[in-house]
Amino acid sequence: MNRVLSFDAEKCVGCHICEEVCSETWFKTTDPERSSIRIREEQRQDGLMLSAVYCVQCGECVNVCPVEALYRDKRGIVRLRKQLCVGCLACVGFCPYLAMFYHAGQAEPFKCVACGKCADECPAEALAVVEVETPRAPGVQI
Amino acid sequence: MRTVLADYAYTPSPVERGYTGRTLYINLSDRTIAAKPVTDLMKEKFIGGRGFGLWLLWHGVRDDTRWNDPENEIVVSSGPCGGTTQYPGSGKSLVVSISPLTNVVIDSNVGGHFGPLLKFAGWDALEIQGKAERDVIIIIDAPAGRVTVEEATNVPTDTHLVARWLLEELAPGEEERYFISSISSGSGAEHTLWGCLNFSLYDRRRKELRFKQAGRGGIGTVLRDKRIKAVVVKSLPVKGDSNHPADPERVARAGIRLHKEIHDYDDQQCRMRHRGTSYLVQIMNDYDLLPVHNFRFGSHPEAHRINGNVWEARFTQGLPDGCWYGCTLSCSHTSDNYTVRTGPYRGQTVSVDGPEYETIAGVGSNCGIFDPDAILELNFYCDTYGIDTISFGTGVAFVMECYEAGILDREKTGGLELRFGNADAAIELLHQMGRGEGFGCIVGQGVRRMKEYFAREYGADPAFLKDIGMEAKGLEYSEYVSKESLAQQGGYGLTNKGPQHDEAWLIFMDMVSNLLPTFEDKAEALHYFPMWRTWFGLCGFCKLPWNDIVPPDNKYMDEPAKIPAHVQNYVDLFSGVTGRQVTREDLITMSEAVYNFQRVFNIRLGYGLRDHDDVPYRSQGPVTIEEYQSRAERYDKQVEQLLGLNPREMSVEEKLAALRKYREEQYERLKDAVYARRGWTKNGVPTPETLKRLGIDFPEVLAVVQKHL
Predict the structure, then answer these.
(1) Tens-digit pLDDT profile for residues B470-484
(2) Which residue in A98, B223, B477, B709 has the fewest CB atoms around it within 10 Å?
(3) First and final CA of chain B: distance in angstroms?
């Protein structure tokens, strides 16, 4: 089984608290550009469309990493060994979900590791950490 | 058993904005090891890479230095952007030396990890002069803060063995292997003038060494003449910010843009990630540009046996096959688990680097060989013996034509029936080069010397040999048929180092798209593109990520051939790394300074003038009746339309002669136009005004050109 974040667009209210929580948890700042989840808002004819960008643990990035810094752990989560990373950012350009992130001031990229902090804090209960057979999260929309 | 002959302690300089500020000088004759400062002038005018190599070499040699004089040097330098991990193709090394083939400066652009690791070991360039008395290895060990020249017992010579020996000797643990790279050549480099350098990289996925070649111009021969078995660098660990750019975000953003572009479009464009440059075989064959039988023809019915589909099936798929970290174009593929079938390593299972297009076309189609296994065998042995596959391919193709023309026979070749397509004979010839015996040693002197030898010893017609011997300046042609593109004839002929397509590849623009109709258009292209391509070699870049992947909207741009969006990436990269804010025009001016300096360097060494830019007629048009008749419709049309003659009333000999007169005149007119555009005299000499405009009017440079004004 693989541990992944899941997102329910029907429940999301677009408060962006998840972005702040993520950024605070991992970078001790509330900069949404340092969050591993990004809530996208798109104005459509039938109203505001909300979607989330985050890692679905598909592992495409593991294949493009030249130094085996990216790997899948026992719980199915794709993680980065920073000490091996050479900062090439190939994983950022090759992520099919645009969910591997780069931020100025840090040579290594970052991503969601399904820690669940954002789900814990989500007031609308739109986020949850779930176990899936194949690492493709349901409900992800880009 | 290792014995240290010279020992130098140092503290690695930190890299600032792409430079360490120091170069490493080693003299093997007097065993000097020293650091030299990188001056502001060097950074401003010569940038790095090939520019640094030329500058250091210029000051190291005399006007009459030849390749095997102790004064000759081998200089290796990456460049300020070299070692960037974020942008594909940013790990190249540039090697500069005086060539045994051409007697002038050769520069060679090569992948592998050496150049970037040299920088991360504290050095912007490595300059080796002098000659050792016995075989040595040079070890640059940054973690230990030591440079040594050492003798060792039982060191193998051929690359796949010596590099493995070094790895086990110097980096026994897996993690120690991450940041080590070696330069080596092989036994063939000792017995021919075609010696190449193999630059290693440790592939963490395969847990194995791979190699990339600085192939052109015989620098491996210089290496072995200096009695160097190998040069090794161990660097400090590489991180994403090791090159310490002025604006890391600008560099990273450019890198991510290109990674994404490659991710989205490579599968629909060149499929470099699957096939590497082997994709070119089919295209060249389709456009009649694939050299076949010593450049007589441009296509062959059996070409499908060696095209990209065949190699895609042979290359191990799905691995990040860059030759430096972060190259997602990943053209550097490997034919793994190849079992060697001949020679001293028969039965060994090896990984063959590539083959790449140039090798497939050179040792393959140009020699009439369409057997993929034979191409792999030749590729493996060329690499491990330290022999340039391009010169080997073009040289053997010349020999095969001479054989079929009756100039050579079995008696002269020592029993080898060197007809087109005889792969076994070509492989045996290569083994002779490795062993240093037989006809292989004559062939390994290169096409220019073979022409003299065959005329002198075998009474061959020198004019015929001149026409079919595909060399210029002494360097063998790389593997494109340039007959129908005058601009590409200039792209090969009007070069500094000799006919190598890395200066200009204009065939499609000129012949297919007809974008260069006038002499002025051609001259402009032969100004811009050689300067543009030179620039990659100043900075540590590879050319391929510039135009082997293009943005989908590129065709709507003003000058699509230049790939404007990618040029902007390079502006961002150079500015972002060095902190020197530049425009796209500045990039060209940087190259102009270095390029003109190299031209003057060649003149200083006794070459580099108009006559030296001559090319063999085989590169310009059909030499033989057979060639004419194979494309009779095309040539008859030209005789009629371009020359205003009636081909139906002429013999083939008359048509050949008329076409030849016309084409040779065109080439001379091209020279005039290009020289004028480049700011040179009619004799091909950069004028003092040009040198002044470029800021390289140093007294010693002006003194060279003034003798020729």
Answers:
(1) 999 999 999 999 999
(2) B709
(3) 57
